[in-house]
Amino acid sequence: MAIDRNGTPLVEMRDISIAFGGVKAVDHVTVDLFPGEVVGLLGHNGAGKSTLIKCLSGAYQQDSGDIYINGDKVSISNPRDARRHNIETIYQTLALADNLDAASNLFLGREIVGPTGLLDDNKMEAETRKVMHRLNPNFKNFTSPVSSYSGGQRQSVAIARAVHFNARILIMDEPTAALGPHETQMVADLIQELKRQGLGIFLIDHDVHQVKKLCDRANVMKNGQLVGTANVEDVSADDLLGMIIAGKCPPGAIPGPGAIHE
Amino acid sequence: MTDADKPARPAQKKNLFAQLEIDTRLLGMIGAFVILCLGFHFITDGRFLTSRNIFNLTIQTVSVAIMATGMVFVIVTRNIDLSVGSLLATCSAVMAMTQTFITPEVFGLGLNHPATAPIAIVVGIATGVLIGAFQGYIVGYLGVPAFIVTLGGLLVWRNVAWYLTNGQTIGPLDRNFMQFGGINGTLGETWSWVIGLIAVLFAFYSFWRNRRSKISHDFPVKPIWAEIVMAAITAVAIMGFVAVLNNYDVPRRRLQQMFEARGEVMPDGFTQGYGLPISVLLLIAVAVVMTIVARRTRLGRYIFATGGNPDAAALSGINTRLLTVKIFAIMGGLCGLAALVASARLSFHSNDIGTLDELRVIAAAVIGGTALAGGVGTIYGAILGALIMQSLQSGMAMVGVDAPFQNIVVGAVLVIAVLIDTIYRKRTGAK
């Protein structure tokens, strides 16, 4: 499917830097994302990919640099701001409250209230049943706490929470790390479906094969800097590995500030 | 098998309690409580489960139970509040000072002026809310652990109360204020029946409403017989409680005094039961409001979510710092309310009021099933916990157990209760 990269990007993170106690976790990184596109963020643990993306999801605030959504500069200082810009995140930890049921987690922070201002739990459960039925028809366990769910069921709840509220920009942090082959395929299908709907997806992953399969473009980071950006068709899995491990930018990719110059 | 021919029917193998949708933990606690009461009743040759003793038990429990409902929220969010007993003392001191010094001498209101009690109560509760919010601010925004902040508070507020009153006992308190103390303020038989009836009707209405709402969303509902059984149990429990309290008669002498005060002569053979104490009514109101907050409001949902996973709550856009302030403010307000009940029951403010209440309150919440790991706890459990603690204490006193042994038993029961709960949770796989 062709992605129009001539228009305004859905998201542009321009020249983002963030440091923790002198360590530059993210160092002048620029990435962008177009509608209907899946952009991978690759790198070792500690390369700064999660930190970068947490600036977009509102968990951190960048020290310098700007974020543009549809060309408009926005300020995202907490997760509520991100949600307001239709940015949804599926965290690696899933960020579920284990003691609550699926519906409470799905609507956490966005509860449905009745005319009296009290929670309408039955309505939330009904909505949850509908969403989960679409996403994972085997899901039946609506009234027990999330702690009793399997890994795949927990993942379903986290995904449902991200896609239920008209997300336009979706951030997925290693969404398949804890999943079996069947569930991984389910996530892959879902990503294709969301692409068709015109969402932009940032996918954080270590696995180059996964990225080659799921993404349109890939950004590689190393030591907080951007090594380069490539169309996944233009580079091989080994090229990507070389970028991740050595910081070498192959001919098919656009080098970033972190690339080694030979 | 005929069951196989009806695949649309849900599984019928649920046990009785599941069909009634009763929490088995609650049932276990009620069971323990009943055994405890029957045991004391037997040992004391039938002196424990008398109207008089049940009346006294309930009014002795109110102050701790009110605070225990707030402690549930504190512990559910993985915090602790060790300052509640001292905070109660400060609130009590402020209320006592307000009604014996400020309203009569500064505002010039006379003795037992109708405005005195409301002013004192509002000032006392506001004091609790402010101090609680202040402690919550230090915990939530400045990041000092709640244990330390409230351990400091334990010393600070106890001695603020001392300083305010110069260590003096302040009394007697305002006559209307003392209505909240228990035996000094009861509704009488007729009004107790009326309140009981209203409570029963309200319970029926909420059962019906919940069922209707579930049906409207095509959710499974309990069989109609189960609804009727639950409604019947509720009605019998409420009306039985009222009947017991109504059965405790006001002493003849006191009735005579009441008639004399009105310039009338008491008819022969006239009796009057105490009925519901206002303090117990206050506790029930607190329990209902706190349960609604816990289950049906965003605030409650956020409290439990934060307790279950603070990071997830924050990433969902919940302001967990402000939430901490709110929880401690609620706790402080409830300390103010408990101070009202406690000082009104004594009919004066004393320097040692509420001493060791922090331990009773925490124990009540924990015995009532609140997990110190956070995320789990119920309001009714905490109240039942407070009632169990109080029954144990006064039952042993009635039996004549020596004071040191009383405390040894209470301490051991706390540990054993949590042990049993831990084992139960492991067995059932509940968290």
Automatic annotation (TrEMBL), chain B:
GO molecular function, a single term: transmembrane transporter activity
Pfam families on file: BPD_transp_2 (PF02653)
Topology within the bilayer: Multi-pass membrane protein
Xref: InterPro entries: ABC_transp_permease (IPR001851)
Annotated protein name in UniProt: Xylose transport system permease protein XylH
Places the protein is found: Cell membrane
Organism name: Pseudohoeflea suaedae
Ranges that cross the membrane: 26-43, 55-76, 82-103, 115-138, 186-208, 228-248, 274-294, 327-348, 360-383, 403-424
